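Aim 2 progress update. The chain analyzed this quarter is reproduced below.
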Amino acid sequence: MNKVIVDIPGLLKTLQSFSLTITCKIISTLLCLVLALSTYASGLPAYPNARIELSVDESRKNHPVITNRMKRVNGVVTSDGAQWLDGHLTRNLYFLPPGHSSNQGYEFYVSLMRAEGVETLFECRSFSCGASNFWANDVFDISTLYGQDKEQAFYIGKKLNAFYAIYAVRRGNGRIYTLVDIFKPHDYEVESAAERGTGSRILRLASGDSGIEKSADLISFVANMNVDPSMNALLIIHSKVPDTLTELDEWQNKMEILQDTITQYLKEQGIAESRLRFNISIGTYDHSLDPGAMPSFWLEIVPLN
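Predicted structure tokens:
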């Protein structure tokens, strides 16, 4: 009969080592799950193999919500329709791995937004966004985002009471960055924005249309101005992005003529020019319009005090 010799201390040591290995694997798995949950805490995953350069989770005052291209007017960097709201900001700035493009970072997150049912408010690419340094320094206050104007893209959308913004850019040194913002305004800001929104109206004017005084919306606006003498208004003439410099020059001339026509019509209706302010915005992209039927020009009227 063969004898079986069991090394009890050695067996215990082996079992302890095996148990420790299993325990480590379980802990490692749990840590991975925790990290994954923290990555998705904002509802959005990290870009694959990207490195987080900056992470923000804090309350903000006067946070800019930009829904149009950036530009400089009379020495001031601004954007038509911009709002500065109080609320809570969750922000991640990703440094993309080598071999990836700014467009890939942009499309990765924009696709996620659309899949989650986020309503697009505005988006732009390349030069139609304005200068990159405006976005880096005046909107996000992150100098790292100052890159090539032609290699940038911006998206902003809204779902429920949260704004989702994406900005992707390629720097001069070739590094690719993608910024992801989720901003939730405080309740009182949401109510205030809703009140302001009820006063804004978009009139769609086809290029060369000479019958704008027949617009029911414009007639209604005139009636409101005459009933309330304290009411003033900002009138923004928008155009889509032109294809050529020649077209840009032609459209700008037509928009200036259109402004004079509207001004003259309003004066004839008894509305003093001192109560009006005009702005011309070239290169607007409005997702509320059907891209296939988007007019060359359209007018936005914003009542003011």
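The domain at 199-304 is CATH 3.30.1330.60 (60s Ribosomal Protein L30; Chain: A;). The first strand starts at residue 51 and ends at 65. These observations will guide the mutagenesis experiments scheduled for the next reporting period.
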